[in-house]
Amino acid sequence: MQASTRTAVPPQPKRRRSGLSSDPNCLPAKTRSWAPLGEQCGLATGFPVLDAALPGGGWPPGSIVELFLREWGTAELSLFLPLMRRLSGQGLELAWIAPPYTAYAPALMQAGIAPARVVIVEATACKQLLWSMERVLRATACGLAIAWPRQSPGRAVRRLQLAARNGQTLGVLCYHGDAPANPSFAALRLRLETSETGFSLEVLKARGGCRRRRVSVDWP
Q1: Helix or strand holding residue 143 (H, E)
Q2: Which residues, at least 6 apart from 147, have a Cβ–Cβ distance to it below 8 Å?
Q3: The domain spanning residue 195 has which CATH number?
């Protein structure tokens, strides 16, 4: 993202690996395993009951997903674990931006994810996080970008949606708390709640409609 005439580009956040990858701007282009946006159905979530509820039969490719949780933890990563495992096996990068916990390489390997495929981006300010996520979403070698913003980016989600479409990368924004009443440019909005046996999802918004509003999924 280039600086505007009024605002300087934020300082570049630190990047580190848990094996871990380097600057996403330097990532080599790789061939995608899905067709360009608008030509095919969604990316399989790894949970058939969830695929059946979502438009296109899975995660919307080249789009932003907003996920609302009561508290950050491991549930959001469990939800995207099947996709991360699949993308890692295809050699695509997985970006975690401002995660609230430390990535643990042995746990990644046990989950079937190559630590060398995970990019950790440390961003303390919201402006840094948004700048980093936009750059990552445009990187063609990145298959999935998950960010944990401390506050709602508001209309900046539109820029992220455009970046996701241009890079054909799935982007996820994980929020702590309830969904705001204001509309969003994200293609999909979900509320996630956990239980001892798994987690439940409520579809708050789905571009193209959804077949079911509530879905229960067992832990992977």
Answers
A1: strand 142-147
A2: 96, 97, 98, 129, 132, 133, 171, 172, 173, 174
A3: 3.40.50.300
Distance of CA 7 to the CA centre of its chain: 27
Range of the domain at 66: 14-22+39-218
- CB–CB of 8/127 below 8 Å? no
In a domain? residue 95: yes
Q: Residue 146 has which token pair?
A: 């998950």
Per-residue pLDDT of 131-160, as tens digits, reads 999 999 998 899 999 999 988 888 899 999
Contact predicate 126/132, CB 8 Å: no
Within-domain flag for 202: yes
Is the residue at 152 inside a domain? yes
Domain count, the chain: 1
The dihedrals phi and psi of 197, each to the nearest 5 degrees, come to -95, -15
